[in-house]
Every structure is written in structure tokens, then in C-alpha cells.
């Protein structure tokens, strides 16, 4: 079973970028197979894209899609625990959680390399935009921002819309995260792509790279690909381009726009300590002056 040697702090990340079909069982099967191949090829921490078991159903508000949800722990969690235990890898898997009747979450499970379910992260920021009607489905997370010590390093997990909030990245890094993982489902409305596409994607990548800079940590973002039209119409064209950013915000590796692939990226966790020592943003934070962050707006 692979272990990270204290003398060699390099860990290989495996980001699973795939297309999603209409059959949840098939999506689960294909994602498990991709995770197994990633582990075989050397990945030690493996992360799925957001809500990989289905097409992105939040393009509309329809009660039938609640049938896609499952308990945690549940069958998908158990399947990834079995894989993690067999392959000796850490797994982050994004699931649609049924917590109770009428209470559902967009949740990531964090599984250690011995198959133990270390914990869950429930998406905190829930969007409500055209074709991203997530407030209809998901209750906001209630477990805060955490980091989990795994066999291969201390990791934090945030989900998609959380990407845009520096507060979320900061608090997760303050909890000790060396790597921030962002399971994601983001794309273009096809009719808007020509006018807004370049700027939208640039902003998405830039904000996450800035989290790496501000917190001196690695950032791994995992997106899906393909045109999905579960309700007909133009649908959403997911832009792929999963990537890993280094501790200075540099792009270490990036996947394609339109191909299924597993991005295998070695990262040297020793660079977290080096970066935070040479760029001591945590040291110089004015914690005495940030009380206003808990307010909606400040009076001028």
C-alpha cells in the first residue's frame, strides 16, 4: 500500500474529468473505473467532479430529480471506500446527499487511504442563476470549513460556487489545508459563449489561482465536459479545463476543453511551508480589523 515518505513530500493528485450520461449507475461505474486507473497510474489523492453521478439537473426546478439523492454513508460512499482501501488512495467524491425528508445537500465525502470515511463537506454557497437553480435542491452547508489529515497530506474541500469566495478558501487554509480541492460543474450557455466565454473562463481560473497565492497552498479544480441538455433547449456546455495551481498561483497542469481525461499532477507539499514562510500573509493579517467581514455591508 503506497505511503508518502517523510523524506519525499511529493504527492500525486488525480483529477477525474469526464462527461456524464443519463444513467447514474453507468456514471458511477465509469467514475470508479477512472479512479481505479488513476490509482494504478500513481495517483494518491483522487477527486471527482461535482455531482458526477448525473447530468447537471439544476438547469431546471423539478421534484423528480430529488430521486437522484442518496444517504451518506450510502452505496456510492461504500463503493469509493472499497476502492480507497484496495488501492491505498485518498478519495474525494461529490454526491447528492439526502439527509432527511426535505433536506438535501451538495456534499463531498472525504475517504482516507484505509477506506475510513474521514468526514463530509456540505457546499456552503448555493447559487441561483439561470440554468443553475441550486437553491431549489440544496440546503446550505452547516459544517463550516475544515481540513482533514490524510495519509498523503492535509486537504480541504470546497465545491464549485464556493470557488468565488476568498473567505472560504482562507478559513479552510487556516484550518491547515495544504491542498484545496474544488469539485466543479461549470460551463457556458451556448448562446452566450461567443460574447462572454473567454472572460467567464478567465475569471473562474483567476479567482482560484488567487486562492493559491493568498494562502500559499495548492489548488485543484475538477470540472466536467460535454453539452448537457437534460431538459432540452440549448443546455449547458461544460468547459472542462480542470487544473492544478501551485503555491504561487502558477498553472502546473491543465486538462483539455472537450476530452475525458485524468490529470495526474505531482505536487511537493514542502513548498507550502516554504511559500508561507517567504510570503507570510498569515503572519501579517490584521485580525483586529476584520470584524466587518461578518456584516452584509458596511455603512459608508
Provide key terms for this protein.
alpha+beta, 6-stranded mixed beta sheet, 300 residues, Nitrilase/N-carbamoyl-D-aminoacid amidohydrolase, 26% helix, globular, 6 helices
Structure description:
The protein is an alpha+beta fold. The protein has one domain (11-284): 4-Layer Sandwich (Nitrilase/N-carbamoyl-D-aminoacid amidohydrolase). Helices cover 26% and strands 28% of the residues. The protein has 6 helices and 17 strands. The strands form 4 sheets. Strands 5-4-3-2-1-17 form a 6-stranded mixed sheet. A 6-stranded mixed sheet has the order 8-9-10-12-15-16, covered by helices on one side. Strands 11-14-13 form a 3-stranded antiparallel sheet. Strand 3 (90-100) and strand 4 (103-111) form a beta hairpin. Helix 1 runs parallel beside helix 2 (75-87) and helix 3 (166-174) runs parallel beside helix 4. It is globular, with a radius of gyration of 18 Å. The mean pLDDT is 95.
How does the SSE layout of this entry go?
Layout (H helix, E strand, L loop, with lengths): L9 E8 L6 H17 L4 E3 L27 H13 L2 E11 L2 E9 L5 E6 L5 E2 L2 E2 L13 E4 L2 E5 L8 H9 L4 E5 L3 E2 L1 H26 L2 E5 L2 E4 L7 E4 L3 E3 L5 E4 L6 E8 L1 H9 L2 H4 L16
Parallel strand pairs: 1-2, 2-3, 9-10, 10-12
Antiparallel strand pairs: 1-17, 3-4, 4-5, 6-7, 8-9, 11-14, 12-15, 13-14, 15-16
Helix pairs in contact: 1-2, 3-4
Helix content: 25-40%
Radius of gyration: 18 Å
The CATH class is identified as Alpha Beta
For this structure, what is the CATH homologous superfamily? Carbon-nitrogen hydrolase
Widest sheet, order of strands: 5-4-3-2-1-17
Tell me the domain tally.
1
H/E element string? EHEHEEEEEEEHEEHEEEEEEHH
> By helix and strand content, what is the structural category?
alpha+beta
The 3D shape can be described as globular
Relative strand content = 25-35%
Unreliable spans are: none
The main β sheet shows up as:
6 strands, mixed
Number of DSSP E strands? 17
Helical stretch count?
6
Task: Please report the distance between the alpha carbons of the first and last residues.
Answer: 58 Å
Q: What is the mean pLDDT?
A: 95
Architecture, according to CATH? 4-Layer Sandwich
CATH T-level topology: Nitrilase/N-carbamoyl-D-aminoacid amidohydrolase
Amino acid at each position: 500500500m503506497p505511503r508518502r515518505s517523510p523524506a519525499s513530500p511529493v504527492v500525486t493528485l488525480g483529477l477525474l474529468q469526464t462527461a456524464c450520461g443519463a444513467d447514474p449507475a453507468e456514471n458511477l461505474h465509469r467514475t470508479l473505473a477512472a479512479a481505479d486507473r488513476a490509482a494504478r497510474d500513481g495517483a494518491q489523492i483522487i477527486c471527482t467532479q461535482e455531482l458526477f453521478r448525473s447530468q447537471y439537473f439544476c438547469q431546471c426546478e423539478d421534484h423528480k430529480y430529488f430521486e437522484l439523492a442518496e444517504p451518506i454513508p450510502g452505496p456510492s460512499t461504500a463503493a469509493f471506500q472499497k476502492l480507497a482501501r484496495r488501492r491505498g488512495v485518498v478519495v474525494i467524491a461529490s454526491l447528492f446527499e439526502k439527509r432527511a425528508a426535505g433536506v438535501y445537500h451538495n456534499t463531498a465525502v472525504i475517504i482516507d487511504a484505509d477506506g475510513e470515511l474521514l468526514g463530509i463537506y456540505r457546499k456552503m454557497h448555493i447559487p441561483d442563476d439561470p440554468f443553475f437553480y441550486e437553491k431549489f435542491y440544496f440546503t446550505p452547508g452547516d459544517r463550516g470549513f475544515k481540513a482533514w489529515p490524510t495519509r498523503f497530506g492535509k486537504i480541504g474541500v470546497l465545491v464549485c460556487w464556493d470557488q468565488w469566495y476568498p473567505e472560504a478558501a482562507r478559513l479552510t487554509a487556516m484550518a491547515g489545508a495544504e491542498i484545496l480541492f474544488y469539485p466543479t460543474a461549470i460551463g457556458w450557455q451556448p448562446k452566450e459563449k461567443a460574447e462572454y466565454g473567454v472572460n467567464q473562463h478567465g475569471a473562474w481560473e483567476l479567482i482560484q489561482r488567487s486562492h493559491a497565492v493568498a494562502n500559499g497552498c495548492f489548488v485543484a479544480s475538477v470540472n466536467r465536459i460535454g453539452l448537457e441538455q437534460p431538459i432540452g433547449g440549448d443546455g449547458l456546455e461544460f468547459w472542462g479545463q480542470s487544473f492544478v495551481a501551485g503555491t504561487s498561483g502558477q498553472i502546473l497542469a491543465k486538462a483539455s476543453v472537450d476530452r475525458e481525461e485524468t490529470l495526474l499532477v505531482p505536487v511537493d507539499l514542502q513548498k507550502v511551508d516554504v511559500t508561507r514562510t517567504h510570503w507570510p500573509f498569515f503572519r501579517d493579517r490584521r485580525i483586529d480589523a476584520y470584524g466587518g467581514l461578518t456584516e452584509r455591508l458596511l455603512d459608508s
